[in-house]
Write a structure and sequence with these properties.
about 45% strand, six-stranded mixed sheet, Immunoglobulin-like, Thrombin, subunit H, about 625 residues, mainly beta, globular, 3 helices
């Protein structure tokens, strides 16, 4: 007897169904501004958001004020004139009865109470700033340890109060797009340990408008170009290498229209950082486009190197970092230090970007502070920092012109993740989100990996995040959150002139392409059922078939989709690669846990699902109709 898999609904579909339900209720009822329909967490993944829905006889604007616990925490926004009003409410407090004031253009005012239960989300240990400085903004910090239930992507106001969160297992960078929405990672993975399907365009309610699916998936960073397209860190061939590929995504279609392969730009085995390995030889964690020089900047953690190359030709322009370990032919790409005073090279850096004046701004993790194992700096004596380098590409000279963090020593030391942001000359953000101590001592271990290493000793493992803002060398803001590590921070305004909840179902753009098939495989039918030790899990998604299972490393494994007239075979790789830097822990994973996905593009019909393992063919007794 065969079991037919039902399609698991995409989050976009679930959100569309939720929206359809509350719109149907609004349109069937008699909801007014005085007695509106209130829907908490309307898009499923943000319990600190709501929508307030009502109708008016005449077109009228609607101004809402989400009341803060103090007046400085009030959030205001005026929505365009309409008769049907579906107003997104951001910035609710948990464990609190919130008040939202509605004011129509005719002067009528009403109040709505929205009670939100307490959330199991890490709160700020402290936030040191003033409302005059920080205003109505939120500081968003994206989780890198979602294995910890309370370590969710969150947003805090000037007082350090939790005002925004995403409960989905999502990580990586968050950026505000030109249209006022957020660019954030997809919630689905494409390969372990943390490679995602792509990126999403999402609003502050958590509504997804577009998911951009990439053939090679997504990791770490993406940036919006002036023409609206997106540059994203991706992968090319997981079996050969990872984190050495970047793509340009056409915004309208999601198609990959240009790509750059770092194996064609750099040597794979030179300039090795302390965490280098052959598979993850570069470990790109940043993409940045600089219009004045028409160039792309990337950050290679596993080479202690920031590189810059021409957008059109891919030709290497320069390498910023410690030149030790590079052969003579590559030395011409490095800068000579001419700083008069304090200077340090960066090590295993993150989030490199080019400033408007051409300076290079990055987060210097400082991991090991040496390419030579014999001269590594002990983590208790180490530091991390934000640093700005001034470079002269004609003379190939470099000068350190600003830094923050060295003076704080090990308390600010993050051996992985983190970022910086630029608000204007002399006004910067520095986020040290990967701080970890084990048994009271700072460690070079990565918090996301230590969760697995010390899973029976979490009581001895402390993870935290510190985010600061500095203006004219004055510390203006400091936020500390304990109970997890946080990949990046981003200061944003929840409401702005572009805030607008657009109704309708989101879109799946781009795609995975047709999954390559393997030649026909003739294995002998096994005399037994598939062993439970394989932990087989098969999920039919809207756009792909997902296979997760455990196999012995090096096993010969094929997926067979057996149709009425012919079968399709797919090779499931079972090679285990070294992972020296897992930046995100979405789930507990063992070395022999494998993921494999078959795109539904080009597939139609009814298929039985079989696994061919080491010359034996097993019937899973599962079938799909595509």
């Amino acid at each position: 007897m065969r079991t037919y898999l039902n399609t698991e609904k995409h989050l976009i579909t679930l959100q569309a169904e939720s929206e359809e339900r509350f719109l149907a209720e609004l349109r069937a009822g008699n909801y007014t501004a005085e007695s509106p329909l209130v829907v908490k967490n309307p898009y499923i993944i943000n319990p600190l958001a709501a929508v307030i829905c009502f109708n008016t006889d005449e077109e009228t604007t609607a101004e809402i004020t989400v009341k803060g616990k103090a007046i400085e925490g009030d959030l205001n926004h005026t929505f365009a004139a309409a008769k049907e009003h579906v107003l997104p409410v951001y910035g609710l407090y948990d464990d609190y009865v919130n008040t939202v004031v509605i004011k129509l253009s005719n002067g009528k005012t009403s109040e709505v109470k929205i009670e939100v239960e307490e959330l199991n989300v890490n709160k700020a240990l402290y936030c040191r700033t003033t409302p005059e400085y920080f205003g109505k903004d939120f500081m968003l910090i994206s989780t890198t340890t979602p294995l910890i239930e309370s370590a969710r992507t969150a947003g805090f106001d000037y007082a350090g109060d939790l005002r925004w969160c995403i409960t989905n297992l999502q990580s990586w960078d968050i950026k505000k797009l030109e249209n006022g929405r957020l660019l954030y990672t997809s919630h689905r993975t494409v390969q372990k340990p943390y490679y995602n399907v792509g990126v999403m365009e999402m609003d502050f309610c958590g509504k997804i408008y577009k998911e951009y699916r990439l053939p090679g998936g997504y990791h770490h960073d993406a940036v919006e170009l002036e023409n609206g397209n997106i540059l994203a860190a991706s992968d090319n061939d997981f079996n050969d290498s990872v984190e050495d590929f970047v793509v340009e995504i056409e915004r309208a279609t999601g198609a990959v229209i240009k790509s750059w392969d770092l194996q064609k730009i750099l040597p794979r085995g030179q300039g090795k950082a302390g965490d280098w390995n052959h598979h993850d030889w570069f470990h790109n964690n940043a993409v940045w486009y600089d219009k004045p020089t028409n160039s792309i900047t990337m950050s290679g953690r596993h080479m202690d190197a920031v590189i810059n190359f021409d957008y059109d030709s891919g030709a290497l322009n320069w390498i910023l970092g410690d030149p030790e370990g590079w052969s003579e032919e590559w030395q011409k790409y490095f800068f000579k230090n001419v700083t008069k005073g304090d200077f340090d090279w960066q090590y295993e850096q993150h989030a490199a970007r080019i400033l408007p004046n051409g300076d290079v701004f990055l987060f210097d993790n400082g991991t090991y502070r040496s390419k030579n194992e014999a001269t590594r700096v002990d983590p208790e004596q180490n530091f991390s920092r934000g640093v700005i380098y001034r470079i002269d590409t004609d003379k190939m000279e470099i000068e350190q012109v600003w830094q923050y963090g060295k003076e704080r020593g090990a308390e600010f030391y993050s051996p992985y993740i983190c970022n910086v942001d630029y608000y204007g000359e002399g006004h910067y953000m520095v986020h040290s989100g990967g701080i970890a101590t084990y048994r009271g001592k700072h460690t070079d271990g990565l918090g996301a990996m230590l969760l697995n290493k010390y899973k029976d000793e979490h009581i001895h493992l402390s993870l935290e995040s510190i985010t600061v803002e500095v203006q004219n060398d004055q510390l203006k803001y400091e936020l500390k959150v304990q109970g997890g590590n946080y990949y990046r921070a981003r200061r944003v305004s929840p409401y702005d002139e572009k805030t607008n909840l657009v109704l309708g179902k989101g879109e799946l753009l781009g795609g995975f392409g047709v999954t390559p098939e393997f030649m026909k495989v003739n294995f002998k039918d096994a005399e037994t059922e598939l062993s439970e030790k394989h932990n087989l899990n098969v999920i039919l998604e809207e756009d792909r078939l997902a296979i997760r299972a455990s196999f012995r490393e090096g096993s010969q494994v094929f997926l067979e989709l057996k149709g009425a007239e012919q079968s399709k075979f797919y090779n499931i790789p079972t090679e285990v690669h070294d992972v020296t830097a897992a930046c995100v822990s979405f789930e507990e994973q063992n070395d022999n846990d494998f993921q494999f996905y078959v795109s539904r593009e080009g597939l139609s019909g009814e298929f039985g699902i079989y696994l061919n393992i080491d010359s034996k063919r097993y019937d899973t007794h599962l079938s799909v109709k595509l």
